[in-house]
Amino acid sequence: MHGDFIFADLSTYTLTETKDFYEKVFDWKYYSDDQSYFVGYKGDHEVAGLYETPEKFKEIWMPSFWMTYIQVEDRDKAVQIAIEQWGKVEVKENISPSEKVALIRDPLGAGFTIYEGSNLQSRTKNTLGTMVWNELYISDISKVEWFYKNLFGREISNVSTKRKEIRSNGEFIWVIEELEEQFRSKYQYRGVYFAVKSITEVVGKVEEQWWMLLYQNEGLASCTDPSWEAFFYLQQV
After folding, report:
1. For residue 49, what is the domain's CATH number?
2. d(CA 129, CA 26)
3. Residues with Cβ < 8 Å from 234, sequence gap 6 or more?
4. Are 153 and 193 in contact (CB under 8 A)?
5. CA–CA gap between residue 177 and residue 172 (Å, rounded)
6. pTM greater than the 0.90 cutoff
7. Number of domains present in the structure of the chain
């Protein structure tokens, strides 16, 4: 649906090690047409994409990162609204006759990809090893709230002055949260959440491979993968 998160892919400097890591943590299997872009599957369900960081990103020391994709009905219309709302369009291309994408940055620089088409739908509500949730961590909600409201036409509810809920037909679909730099670091970014049955069990798998646990509580954890830069969340369901 328009404005919903539907897919995520990972740009990484350590492709071979990272593929192995996610296979051990989430039991993903991979398919690739050309051995450059790999699609991870959980059973028959397409979960995420992985690819080696392009040279143009390496030249500017772009860290490994997860990129999230948001569904739109009309890519070109969404691009125009983003520009009018002080966003920046980095890339705009057609990936097939029926699929169009654009990489956009919001007024504070947080990036995301909009997607027009019907072939991507990887997010689930509670399927283990799949993307189930997304949050935006930002330095100043007031500078992006209207951008997202006008771009996607979604209801934005106030939880507090530092946390906003985005809803679709009353359903809670993602969150914008304002965090201080000491917790967020200098970047503006989105968190990608994957479902697990047991936080303790999966954190154990992560630590067995010598990668870093950043944060853990009763039902949530944040970890890095072999890049030591790209991080993701575990959500117990």
Report:
1. 3.10.180.10
2. 5
3. 193, 194, 196, 199, 202, 203, 220, 221, 222, 223
4. no
5. 14
6. yes
7. 1
Which of 44, 69, 32, 48 has its CA nearest to residue 225? 48
Helix (H) or strand (E) holding 11: strand 5-12
Q: Which domain holds residue 126?
A: 5-236
How many CA atoms within 13 Å lie on the side-chain side of 38? 20
- As given in the structure block, the two tokens for residue 13 are 């400097």
Q: Are 7 and 67 in contact (CB under 8 A)?
A: no
Helix, strand and coil content of the chain, in percent to the nearest 5, comes to 20, 45, 35
pLDDT at 119: 92
Contacts of residue 2, defined as CB under 8 A and 6 or more positions apart, other chains included, come to 71, 72, 73, 152, 153
| Per-residue model confidence (pLDDT) at position 186 | 85
